[in-house]
């Protein structure tokens, strides 16, 4: 199906109380809690694997002068040491996935320089420790703030890096109220629970990788380029993934090196798991950013000029940039507009997508600037946002498919008790605690990706669905089972969902908030085709037919599925994005509300409560959707208050490269958090009339927390995260200013 027209009434609209929309438990839950859900490193599908351990560079820029592997090769259990001297020939880089160990150049600290394969993990690790590498070190560049002048306009981009409308400079200069603020966000790590891991083996000129990968088909294409193979000769299997958040969008060094070592070992399987410390340097990260936001408004609060400029960085030779300003293009109305992105290449690990790339850090800046503007106008920050609600997409000049940002703000304000808020910063106390509340809008692009699915209905009533989709812990197995069950009128327990194998029909994979909509729509189309085959075996009226309880019901007549299946029926379905993505501006929306306490002496910040109100089209499963939204909000809390990879500006290393020192929110940091969904169907989005939710929860969440900290203290911090030292500096500055006054 080509999504070029709005969708009319569908089977999901006509069956009340069907499986879709019910808060059922995860169908894969029992497998996970009993240990029967096997992750990549746990797989035993390939016999007698060798265990690999990666040797990484201890400089950030330079060349390998010499590498001595003799001692490692003599160690017990060692079967192979892979270096640039014996690595198999490789092809070209594709989708940020490139050949490894092909030369002696070092581009960042932690770059793989060798791989030791042994009979056990412990033997491989011990031998890796005695590989000796001599370097000719060169001076590198590690600090984004020092490289702004050399940053350039990105050349390769899925969306234009810059946009402009009207005359921003003139509009800004003429505005009676202006905000010009600089914000910075740090390097962040995906910090998923499951480290990157792969088990790879060759059979002739074909290679199979059981690997932790969010998008197997995309990875298949990229690895085919690296291994110089036809795409169909590369098979990826990713049945269960222990979190990704974008860090497993592309195959990483574990996958490439495992396959290369297996090739040198005549096809023997090789298994690699990166250590937690290696994950930080060997895989990807979210770039740090420097952002400048300028807002011009009339005394009535109507925006007349918006500018959002962002600088980010990635490794030498890479072109990925953080699209921090993209969401600004559609969020609020203003006649004069400017957005721009600039990219610096630093000797740091490659930057790539991390949960809500662009919006997550862009809205940390932009939605705080909106708060600053509200204060300058002496206007309630919710009212400021409502006054600047656009009638259509302000830059594309097309209608919104659906847009309920204002209802989210108003309903959230009602539920949160916003009307009880004292608008004066620093005026509310609870004993030792300064108390503040903050708000932010949430918006996330709602894309659709090509996907296919195959379904089979067997005589025993089992409905089996296959596609190369993945479940990274989000509940994909569950919502797809619900869709299939409702479309064919069978129980969810009768659905067998087989995911994560490129041998099955291609799918979008998990990421970008398009996974459920894309794979679910393909499954919907396959089930629709199967419904047609079943109806063709009856004389029932198709127009009014309802599939329910293992039967097809039309009017006062019905037929049992078991009487129509025969030896079994199969069907395939496909979804493709169409013109609707150009005809309509498609976003999911929401509003975040946060209350914090700040200790008046120590500056400690504690989140007291948080609420998100969202719209995401049809909610396929309220339980998993709420889990996704709250998880995103927790990401936002981390970004606001604690998450930062500290870059050693002398050596280009990440100092806090483990979960002991890279702080993410834990249960003790998180009080009552709730997520509420407003009713919505989007018939321009896809046949499910749903929208993406996986990343919406993080968008703007951190800004609501930061705005609450300002409201509590009167201290505006624009350098994330908002750590104790910055709060204490603000206290000191206020006290000094008061004494001088």
From TrEMBL:
InterPro entries reported in the protein's UniProt record: Ald_Oxase/Xan_DH_a/b, Ald_Oxase/Xan_DH_a/b_sf, Ald_Oxase/xanthine_DH-like, AldOxase/xan_DH_MoCoBD1, AldOxase/xan_DH_MoCoBD2, AldOxase/xan_DH_Mopterin-bd_sf
Aldehyde oxidase/xanthine dehydrogenase a/b hammerhead domain location: 34-139
Region (Disordered) residue spans: 1-28
Molecular function via GO: iron ion binding; oxidoreductase activity
SMART domains named among the record's database cross-references: Ald_Xan_dh_C (SM01008)
Pfam assignment, any one: Ald_Xan_dh_C
Stated name of the protein: Xanthine dehydrogenase
């Amino acid at each position: 199906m080509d999504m070029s027209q709005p969708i009319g009434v569908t089977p999901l609209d006509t069956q009340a109380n069907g499986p879709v929309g019910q808060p059922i438990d995860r169908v894969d839950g029992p497998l996970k809690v009993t240990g029967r859900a096997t992750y990549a490193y746990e797989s035993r599908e390939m016999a007698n694997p060798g265990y690999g351990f990666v040797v990484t560079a201890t400089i950030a820029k330079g060349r390998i002068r010499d590498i001595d592997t003799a001692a490692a090769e003599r160690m017990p259990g060692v079967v192979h040491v892979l270096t640039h001297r014996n690595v198999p020939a490789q092809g070209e880089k594709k989708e940020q996935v490139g050949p490894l160990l092909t030369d002696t150049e070092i581009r960042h600290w932690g770059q793989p320089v060798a791989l030791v394969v042994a009979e056990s993990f412990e033997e491989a690790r011990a031998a890796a420790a005695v590989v000796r590498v001599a370097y000719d070190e060169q001076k590198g560049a590690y600090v984004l703030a020092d490289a702004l002048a050399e940053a350039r306009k990105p050349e390769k981009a899925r969306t234009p890096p810059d946009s402009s409308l009207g005359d921003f400079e003139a509009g800004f200069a003429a505005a009676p109220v202006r905000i010009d603020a600089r914000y910075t966000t740090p390097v962040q790590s995906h910090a998923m629970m499951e480290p990157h891991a792969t088990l790879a083996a060759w059979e002739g000129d074909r290679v199979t990788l059981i690997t932790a990968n969010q998008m197997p088909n995309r990875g298949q294409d990229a690895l085919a380029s690296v291994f110089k193979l036809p795409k169909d000769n590369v098979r990826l299997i990713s049945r269960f993934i222990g979190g990704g958040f974008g860090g497993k969008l592309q195959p990483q060094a574990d996958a490439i090196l495992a396959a290369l070592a297996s090739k040198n070992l005549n096809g023997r399987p090789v298994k690699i798991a990166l250590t937690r410390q290696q994950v930080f340097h060997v895989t990807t990260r979210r770039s740090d950013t420097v952002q400048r936001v300028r807002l011009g408004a009339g005394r009535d609060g109507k925006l007349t000029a918006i500018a959002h400029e962002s600088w980010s960085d990635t490794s030498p030779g890479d072109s990925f940039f953080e699209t921090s300003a993209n969401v600004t293009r559609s969020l609020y109305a203003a006649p004069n507009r400017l957005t721009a992105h600039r990219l610096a290449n630093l000797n740091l690990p490659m930057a790539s997508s991390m949960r809500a790339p662009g919006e997550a850090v862009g809205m940390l800046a932009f939605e705080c600037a909106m708060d600053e503007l509200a204060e300058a106008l002496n206007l309630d920050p919710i009212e400021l946002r409502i006054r600047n609600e656009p009638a259509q997409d302000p830059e594309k000049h097309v209608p919104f498919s659906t847009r309920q940002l204002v209802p989210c703000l108003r309903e959230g304000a009602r539920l949160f008790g916003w009307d009880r808020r004292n608008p004066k910063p620093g005026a509310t106390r609870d004993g030792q605690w300064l108390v503040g509340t903050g708000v932010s809008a949430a918006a996330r692009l709602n894309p659709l990706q090509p996907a296919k699915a195959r379904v089979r209905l067997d005589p025993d009533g089992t409905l089996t669905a296959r596609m190369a989709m993945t479940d990274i812990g989000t509940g994909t197995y569950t919502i797809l089972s619900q869709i299939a069950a409702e479309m064919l009128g069978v129980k969810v327990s009768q659905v067998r969902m087989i995911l994560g194998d490129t041998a099955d029909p291609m799918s979008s994979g998990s990421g970008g908030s398009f996974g459920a909509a894309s794979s679910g729509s393909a499954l919907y189309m396959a089930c629709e085709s199967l419904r047609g085959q079943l109806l063709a075996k009856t004389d029932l009226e198709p127009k009014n037919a309802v599939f329910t309880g293992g039967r097809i019901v039309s009017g006062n007549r019905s037929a049992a599925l078991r009487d129509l299946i025969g030896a079994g029926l199969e069907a395939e379905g496909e979804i493709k994005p169409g013109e609707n993505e150009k005809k309509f501006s498609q976003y999911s929306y929401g509003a975040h509300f946060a209350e914090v306490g700040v200790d008046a002496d120590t500056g400690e910040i504690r989140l007291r409560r948080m609420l998100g109100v969202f719209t995401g089209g049809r909610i396929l499963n309220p339980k998993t959707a709420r889990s996704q939204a709250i998880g995103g909000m927790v990401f936002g809390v981390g970004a606001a208050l604690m998450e930062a990879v500290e870059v050693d500006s002398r050596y280009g290393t990440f100092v806090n490269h483990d979960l002991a020192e890279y702080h993410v929110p834990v249960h003790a940091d998180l009080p009552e958090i709730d997520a509420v969904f407003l009713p919505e169907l989007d018939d321009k989005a896809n046949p499910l009339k749903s929208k993406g939710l996986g990343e919406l929860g993080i968008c703007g969440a951190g800004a609501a927390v930061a705005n609450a900290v300002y409201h509590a203290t009167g201290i505006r911090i624009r350098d994330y995260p908002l750590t104790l030292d910055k709060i204490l500096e603000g206290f000191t500055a206020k006290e000094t200013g008061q004494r001088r006054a």
